[in-house]
Amino acid sequence: MARFRGWIHSNATLIHVDSHHDDCIDGAEVTGLHDIQSEKDAFDISVYNFQQYSDRIPMRIDNFIFAGIAREVIESVIYVCDKQDQKNPFDQLEWTENVLQYYSRILTEAKLQKYVQGKRLWSIPELVDHIQDGTLDPWIQSKSVILDLDLDYFANSHTWEEAVLRPVHEIKEELFSRKANKFLMKQEPGVQKRIAQAIEGIRIVPPEGD
C-alpha cells in the first residue's frame, strides 16, 4: 500500500525489529498476491478471511515478509531479533532440502541471492551502531527503508500466554538511548519529528478488567 501511495520505491530494505523472524516462506504464494493492481487490492488481501477456504494461502503476521519479497516491495531484510531466537535465517546450511527446493520454486535466483545477503542483528543498540559506522550503508543508502517495529521485542517473555511488556519507561529509554538520539539527529527534520512522535506516543493499554 505504501508503494501505491508513493511513500516508498520498489525493492526496499526492511528493518524487522521483532522477537520472531516472521519468515514463513509461503507468503510468496498468498492467494491473489500476484493479481494486486491497486491499493484496495493490497488491503483486501491483507485482511481477507481465508479460513473457510482450505485450498487458499492467507496473508498472516508470520509470512508477510516473503509476500513483500515476491511482489518486489522488499529486496533485503535486516532482522533485529533478541537472543530468544538463535536461528540465522540467512544460513543456507540450516535449510533442509525441502526448504531449499521451496525457496527455489517460489523465488528467482536473483531475489533469493539478494535475500540471503541480508543482516541478522541482536538488538536495537547494535542496529544503531551499524547504521552509524556505515556497516549497513549497502542496505540503506539510496534505497527506501521500511521500519517494522513489533512491541513483543520489548516483552519479558515471548510466549503468547506469558508475554508481558517491560515498563514503558524502559522501552522509551532503549529507543531514546544516547546512540539512538545521535542517529535521530542525523535525519531530516520531518523524519525526526515522525520518529519522535511515534516513540513518545507509545502507550500500554491494560486488558479490560485488569
User: Structural class of the secondary elements?
Assistant: alpha/beta
Roughly how much helix do the residues carry, as a percent range? 25-40%
Number of strands: 4
Q: How much is the radius of gyration in Å?
A: 18 Å
What does the main sheet amount to?
4 strands, parallel
Low-confidence stretches: 202-210
Give the termini distance in whole angstroms. Answer: 36 Å
**How many helical elements?**
9
- Strand proportion, as a percent range, falls in 5-15%
User: Element order, helices and strands?
Assistant: EHHEHHEHHEHHH
Average pLDDT reading: 76
> What general form does the structure show?
globular
Major beta sheet, strand line-up: 3-2-1-4
Describe the protein.
- The protein has 210 residues and is of the alpha/beta class.
- The chain has helices at residues 39-47, 64-70, 97-106, 109-116, 124-132, 137-140, 168-175, 178-185, 189-200, and strands at 12-17, 74-80, 119-121, 145-149.
- The chain has a four-stranded parallel beta sheet, with helices on both faces.
- The radius of gyration is 18 Å and the shape is globular.
